[in-house]
Amino acid sequence: MTAKTEFSLLPGWLVWLASLLTVNLVGLGILWLSLQSAIAAYIAIAIALLVFPTLIMVRDRLLGEYFTLLGFLILVGVAALLASNYYELRSGTSISDISVTQAADYPDASQFRFTDGAVRTELTGQRIVRSRSGDRTNRQYYFVAPIVPADWQPSEPVPAWAGCTNTGSAVNVCQGDWPRPYQAGLRIARDLRNYEQAITDAVAQYNLQTAERAPILEWVADPSLALRNRGRSAVGLWMGVNVIFAIAPAPRPLALPDAPGD
Hints:
The chain is an alpha+beta fold. The chain has two domains: 3-89 and 230-257, no CATH class; 94-221. The chain contains five helices and ten strands. The strands form two sheets. Strands 2, 3, 4, 5, 6, 7, 8 and 9 form an eight-stranded mixed sheet that branches. A two-stranded antiparallel sheet has the order 1-10. The longest helix is centred in the N-terminal third of the chain and has 25 residues, at 12-36.
């Protein structure tokens, strides 16, 4: 029995190029949706992961390239979410030369530079989010601590919070930065529900109270630089996965056996 090759209606390299362009369009759609609604973006990612690679696999019989395409789509989706976070923060205002006690007065600000304030690391609260992956339990840790002026008293509302998250380890990866006298922060705009539950933990543990609309901040030396680095990371990831996918071997059509009698 000999084998004959069943070809797609399009050359493999052209299908590969069309896949690259389509995935990037999907990524741009996810970027736009995530700026409107995070939930809508996650739904779009789920639909894209289920539908798009499967259509390519069935339509062009690219069984061997299914997981390559799926990985490409996942990484582009991650890059789109990172980019949307960058654009969301970039659209906020930058506030300078204010007391940390005034932080809640600027709900549209994304970058803060204070004239006072320090992170009280001894008043840290945390939230643990557990998820199952097969037989393995994954943990995401969220940490918060008050950002307050030197004369602050525990009976006074906390005007702002430092936030940090870490995957897999209960060690607070920001414990090296929080004691530094940065007096500046970049607003955290994602996973707010988990950070708010960490604040609830700190409030309950240490008998604190929090100011209404108190921002949750990444404690950094230069908020503008931190924001630019976030944008560069998103662009770098997006471009990197495109380069890798573009130089990957073009898909080959399947070789199918001859029908009986051929």
